[in-house]
Design a protein that fits this description.
Blueprint (H helix, E strand, L loop, with lengths): L3 H36 L5 H11 L3 H13 L3 H10 L5 E5 L5 H8 L3 E6 L2 H14 L4 E4 L12 E6 L10 H14 E12 L5 H19 L10 E5 L8 E5 L3 H10 L3 E6 L4 E7 L3
Parallel strand pairs: 1-2, 1-4, 2-3, 4-5
Antiparallel strand pairs: 5-9, 6-7, 8-9
Length: 282
C-alpha cells in the first residue's frame, strides 16, 4: 500500500497531463470553431484586424514579448543578419513588438526604426530602449501603410508572422510592395512566416481546405477566405482565443515576393517559421 505522500506524488504527473490535454482540446476547439466562422464568412477583414490589435495588447502577450526581448536574437537570426545586414545599416523593423530584434540590432550599431500596430507593444519598446540607453525610434504604424519616404532604408524586416496577419493575397502583395518602396535600390527585405508545408497535419488540413474552396468556386460561391487562412490560437497567451493568420506555402511566398517587384536572394523554406530574403532591384 502506498503512503499518502507517495500517492500525492504519483497523482501529480497525471494531473499535469490532464491539464495539458484540457488546454490542447480547448485550443483544438477554438481552431475548429474559428475555421467554421471563416468558411461561413462570419468574420471579415475588419473583425480580424480588430482581434489582432486587441490580442497583442493583452498582459499575457506583453509579458511573453518582454521575456523574449530579454532573451535577444536566436542563433539562426544572428547568422541571417550577419549574412545580409551591413554594420550601420538603416533598418526598419515592421511589427517590432517590444523591440526584441530592434534593440539587438541597435546594440550592434544599426540605425533602427521600429513600428508596430499595437500601442501597448510600442510603449513597452520605448521603455526598454530608454532603460538600455539606446537611441531607438519606435512608433505605432500598420505594416500595410508604411509612412516613410521612398528609399529610406537599407533593410526592412517583417519577422514573427507580421505578413501572415495581413488578410487577403492582394493586400499581402501590396504590403510587400510597400516595403519595396521604402527600400533603397539594392536594399534587403527579410520575411519570416509560418509554413503550411512544415508538418503533415498542416498539409492534410489545408489540402482539405483547398478542395473545399475549389468545390465552392465550381458551385458559383467563391469563398472570401483562401487556402492557407487559419483562425486559431496564437503561440502564447490565451490559447482558447483565436486569431487570424495566413500560413504560406514556400512557392506561394516566392510568387508574392516576385509579384511585389522583389528578387529572392536566399531562402530557408523547410522550417515551420520559414525565412526568405529578397532585395529591391538596383
Amino acid at each position: 500500500m502506498l503512503a499518502p505522500d507517495a500517492v500525492g506524488i504519483a497523482r501529480t504527473p497525471v494531473r499535469r497531463a490532464a491539464k495539458r490535454l484540457r488546454r490542447e482540446l480547448a485550443a483544438l476547439g477554438a481552431t475548429l470553431g474559428g475555421s467554421l466562422a471563416l468558411v461561413r464568412g462570419r468574420l471579415g477583414p475588419r473583425e480580424l484586424d480588430r482581434d489582432i490589435r486587441a490580442r497583442y495588447g493583452e498582459p499575457a502577450e506583453l509579458a511573453t514579448a518582454r521575456a523574449l526581448t530579454q532573451a535577444g536574437l536566436t542563433p539562426g537570426e544572428r547568422r541571417l543578419f550577419a549574412a545580409h545586414l551591413k554594420p550601420g545599416a538603416r533598418v526598419l523593423d515592421v511589427g517590432c513588438g517590444c523591440g526584441r530584434v530592434a534593440l539587438a540590432l541597435a546594440r550592434a550599431g544599426c540605425r533602427v526604426v521600429g513600428v508596430d500596430v499595437s500601442e501597448a507593444m510600442v510603449r513597452e519598446a520605448h521603455a526598454l530602449a530608454r532603460a538600455a540607453g539606446l537611441d531607438l525610434r519606435v512608433q505605432v504604424m500598420d505594416a500595410r501603410h508604411l509612412g516613410f519616404r521612398p528609399a529610406a532604408f537599407d533593410a526592412v524586416l517583417m519577422l514573427g508572422s507580421v505578413l501572415a496577419y495581413v488578410h487577403g493575397r492582394r493586400t499581402r502583395i501590396e504590403t510587400l510592395a510597400g516595403a519595396r518602396r521604402v527600400l533603397r535600390p539594392g536594399g534587403t527585405l527579410v520575411v519570416v512566416v509560418p509554413s503550411r508545408h512544415a508538418a503533415w497535419r498542416f498539409r492534410v488540413w489545408f489540402a482539405g481546405m483547398s478542395v473545399l474552396a475549389a468545390v465552392l468556386r465550381r458551385l458559383g460561391a467563391p469563398p472570401a477566405w483562401e487556402p492557407g487562412d487559419r483562425l486559431g490560437p496564437a503561440w502564447s497567451g490565451d490559447r482558447t482565443r483565436p486569431v487570424y493568420w495566413h500560413m504560406y506555402a514556400p512557392g506561394e511566398l516566392a510568387a508574392d515576393l516576385t509579384a511585389a517587384g522583389l528578387e529572392i536572394v536566399d531562402a530557408f523554406p523547410r522550417a515551420y517559421m520559414m525565412s526568405f530574403v529578397a532585395r529591391r532591384p538596383p
